[in-house]
Amino acid sequence: MNHSIIHKLLGLTLLAGVLIALTTDSHAAERTRSRSGSYTTGSGKSGTFQGSTTRGNGTRTREASRTNQDGATATRSSNRTFDKETGTGTTSATSTRIDGKTATREGTITKTGDKTFTSEGSATGFNGRTGTYNSTTTKTEDGRSTTGTITGEAGKQATFNKTTTHNGDGLTSRTSTVTGPNGKTSERELSRQINADGTGTRTVEITKPDGTTETRTQTFTVVKEPASTP
Q: Which of 52, 114, 172, 230 gives 20 to 30 Å between its CA and that of 145?
């Protein structure tokens, strides 16, 4: 299975894991949080980004864009719904690269226990290849843990796991690992610090199956807009 589709499916799939954070009821006021800033990479590239997240009324919607040093822009949008009474929901996402190619994902979420959710669905990568996924997410004392399987068009499978830890004082750590059908492993490590004044930093390091790494560092400011009552 091509590692690009594995990582695309992995990134889209793990969005379902944050469902556990959904604690607002179906009639709660909507809240929007915006984030904007700049980034640099280990290879010397740079750019700016902006995005917003709106939660409430049983939904969460995210919109984001990134513009590189050449002025080219990539976008991403996602939507999640969840009905607390039935314990079911849906997720979907669309990503568009600077070359105009698009990847999509859609799936369902089901609450299966007090602190456990399962997710399954399908995704199409930027190269047009498709795959399916299934995963289980469990809430822990200081975060959450997700494990799952990705199946490609030819039936080959990759496994993945992801652990998110909230370390206090605005610090979040996240490690994601995917093992392909050939046994080779890729890892993504994230560290995000949000300060009391809304400023923050985010560092991502990706280790590829051949051992090479890619890094990206962001500095940003978060703005919370006043809640709106429907």
A: 52
